[in-house]
Amino acid sequence: MLETIVAPATPYGESSIGVIRISGLRALEIVKTLTKAKVFKNRYAHYRKVYLDNDIIDDVIVTFYKSPNTYTGEDLVEISCHGSVTIIKTIVNELINLGCLMAEPGEFTKRAFINGKLDLLQAESITSIIKSKSDINLKNQQKILSGQLSSKLLIIKQKLLDVLSYFEHHLDIDEFDGDLEPENYLDSLNFIQSELKNLMDSFSMGKLYNDGLHVVICGKPNVGKSTLFNRMLNSDIAITSSEPGTTRDIINAELNINGIPIKLFDTAGIRNSDNIVEKIGIDKAKKLSKTADLKLNIYDKKIDKDDDLNKNEINIINKCDELSEGRYKDKLLYCSAKNNVGIDLIFDIIKKKLTSSKSTDSATFITSSRQQLNIKDAYHKTGVALENIINNNINIEILSFELREALDSIDLILGKTTPDDIINNIFNHMCVGK
Length: 434
Known about the structure:
Blueprint: E1 5-8, E2 15-23, H1 27-35, E3 45-52, E4 55-65, E5 76-83, H2 85-97, E6 101-102, H3 107-114, H4 120-131, H5 135-145, H6 148-173, H7 186-201, H8 203-211, E7 213-219, H9 225-233, E8 251-257, E9 260-266, H10 276-291, E10 294-299, E11 313-317, E12 327-329, E13 332-334, H11 343-354, H12 369-390, H13 396-414, H14 420-428
Parallel strand pairs: 1-6, 7-9, 7-10, 10-11, 11-13
Antiparallel strand pairs: 1-2, 2-5, 3-4, 4-5, 8-9, 12-13
Helix pairs in contact: 4-5, 6-7, 6-13, 7-12, 12-13
């Protein structure tokens, strides 16, 4: 039997209201002792007083949710009190004294998973919803939480089971590999491959909307990198000066472009330097530019660049102060950060690079590497089976083995057979009280 747990469900700090969550078999019993009240109706908000050694701690609202129709699947109580750090801490400590254990990060959601209230995909989506920095990612994670992605995978799983049952039926009734009727399984295998391929292809956009994009401004000293950084953010975060080498460390800030969270980096100017501090900054800039999702290469005069640009680069000619509007010609973007000219054009080019994939209106993306790796594995296993059939290399035992491996990968995604260390890692990344 799991212990009764408690944790604040609202962030630490002063606020108008604080919420404390208790879950477990003894949740109602302990809260009755805390409030000296005997009656709590299911799903009713009750005005009560909380006591400590007969002294009133606070006036609160207590809501009791009876199992199994609760978030965790257990008896659940939520106490809404005044959002004082002292009050919340005192109530939580008293609940612990009365028999509760302090919840681990993500433990309420982990119990929901253990009790079958949600699968591992849905649990992962809760973390992403809390941390979401864009409307598109929020909508996608809500689709996953509602079960859309799980439903897709369950359809794929059922198709796999149908084909596997057909193969194993023949294995049971034949001592040798007899003739199989392709119409009983080829359409299903092609459907499975197509659906898994679509999910695999969705990962790049899903990861983009979930994790965001790192955009690095780089170039030589005094080409206007920091001025451009400030213009793009519409702020004065970075210090600007006509003296070369002003920026010596990496500066970053966040913005949102077309629903995609962007972390924009200003870096030290790349040059040979004898200054120890500046050299450290230059080394950091070089390393960051190698791992960037998108590089904005800044120059202060036209450059000769015969080789093709990488798809993750934009070459920008800054200090074109005579321009009244930005220009994009021959893969070079002309702007004046000083005069705020061409900044919109930079955003337009970035948007085009970000929106070159398919529409996101109705799609459901996979967003974690764990999901992507298991879907890729299921796709590979079903692909091996399909290729053997097409090449008329039909060995029912081998085909059944590949399809069982694919089934295992689907179950890993949903959390049916996922190792404990992976499950614990997912829930440990959640906040306490969730």
